[in-house]
Amino acid sequence: MVPDVWKRFLRDQRFQRDQLKLTRKLRSLRHLGSTKVQIGSHEFLNFSSNDYLGLTGDLRIAEAAASAAGRFGWGTAASRLVTGSSTQHTKLEGEIAAFRDTEAALLFGSGYQANLGVLTALAGPEDTILSDANNHASIVAGCKLSGAQTKVFKHCDYDDLERKLNGVKSGKIIVVTDSIFSIEGDAADLPRMVKLCERFNALLIVDDAHANACLGKKGRGVPELQNCMTGVPVVIANFSKALGSYGGFVACDEELREFLVNHSRPFIYTTAIPVALAAANLEALRIVRREGDALRLKLSSNTSLLRGRLAAAGFQLTGKHQIIGIHVGSPEQATHMANDIEFHGILVHPMRWPTVAEGRDCLRVSVTAAHTDEDIGRVVDAIKKSRDGLTRKKTDGLTRRQNKRPTHQQLDTSEMPLVDGFDDFDDHPDDGFMSAHDSSRLPPPDQVDEIASQSASASDTMIVNPEPVGGNDSPTRPVDKAGIEEEQEEEQEEAHEQESPETDDEPESGFPDVAGSEPGETLAPETAAELQDPVIADIEGGTKKRGRKSTARKKGD
Q1: Closest residue by Cα to residue 554 from 505, 484, 511
Q2: How much is the pTM?
Q3: C-alpha span between 515 and 521 (Å, rounded)
């Protein structure tokens, strides 16, 4: 049973994660080849994986694992130093050394274990490790567990690295860096680091996980790409990315390998990887040796295409290679955009603290050799729609308020007097007082004649609705289209009757009849003025207009 103090701690931690929008959850999915996954009953295009050469779905690798499992079984039941080291493990280490062009190699259970195993074995309390600020979490963990003094230099700032190297006065020195940084896809300047390490007698360790097999002329990563392979004595990489399998390794000289076999605790005290997995990794290396050139060319083409289209759409991109970072403003925005892109059937993962530094939240897009031009077009369109949707969301409140405003906003208000406040009583034009609740702002009756005699413009013909109609809060009254057509027909009938010689009961004043008045009766000037002004007529409740309708119907009958 979990003690109450721990229950409270776990509950508080969960609440804090939820408040910061940093909660992560696992979900089960089914891989459908190299570029698609199925979640529930829905299929998604995958732009979140590290399967850079598209080999995770290659059946040749799966068949090699199945064949070896049929011959040798699955488990190894012991560490390499006991009874877990098979001929397949030894053969795989030889193939790795040949592939990376080093004297030797040593297998680890994963790339994470390899970083822990190398750093904790080589460095101690009297030593100093200098680590790039954006290095992978496994490097950070290895630095801490080693017990060495760790100095972090600014990301790819080699002047800062030089200053910190100058500050080291004793002990051995290790400089460690990623080659391709896993979130933003930018690359380290390895030739410059090689020169600094030679100058200060430091050992350079490069984690080439995201470049192994997919960059360089022969797939030997950034050291080959930047033409400095001989200057990088220790390379850590894995099978779980471009090689489409699983497991980690270190490529180095024979002396260092022997040292790690005897001092690296993650190697010594871990059960050996399954023989079938070793066989699968051997097959992955064979495929890359035979087909790697074509796969790397396709990856480079897809990378250029995706980066070009995203840049043309106005996105600020990081890096130069197959990992593309798109910065956003906050963890909430990163999560919102990723969910919106997923709604369009595409997986693009949001990267948030603590995976990245605070304020560096981004979308991480990774392209592979298996993606098609159509796939790339789809992901670009989805990211654009997500960005545009996020922009609209920020202004939705303003847009909704603007949409609710009446259509007579074009009225010229330049001559309107300024109002100092919203007191219960405002100054009236005749120096009297008027309640603020009287929102119609009607002039006194003695000024109606003057208003009626003025010509009305098209912008003045608004229908004031002082009372809500059908729960509508809008200050304008909704007008029924059928009602408008009926009124137009009635007005045409009235005009026809006025022109007809048979009609001799029209009032001398020229104004139409009003309900309740006798035919031929002359209206008072004030009443006539009121009927000419549609605003005043409507405030009177519409009775006069309805009177005209009923009179017109009687005449029609």
Answers
A1: 505
A2: 0.70
A3: 12
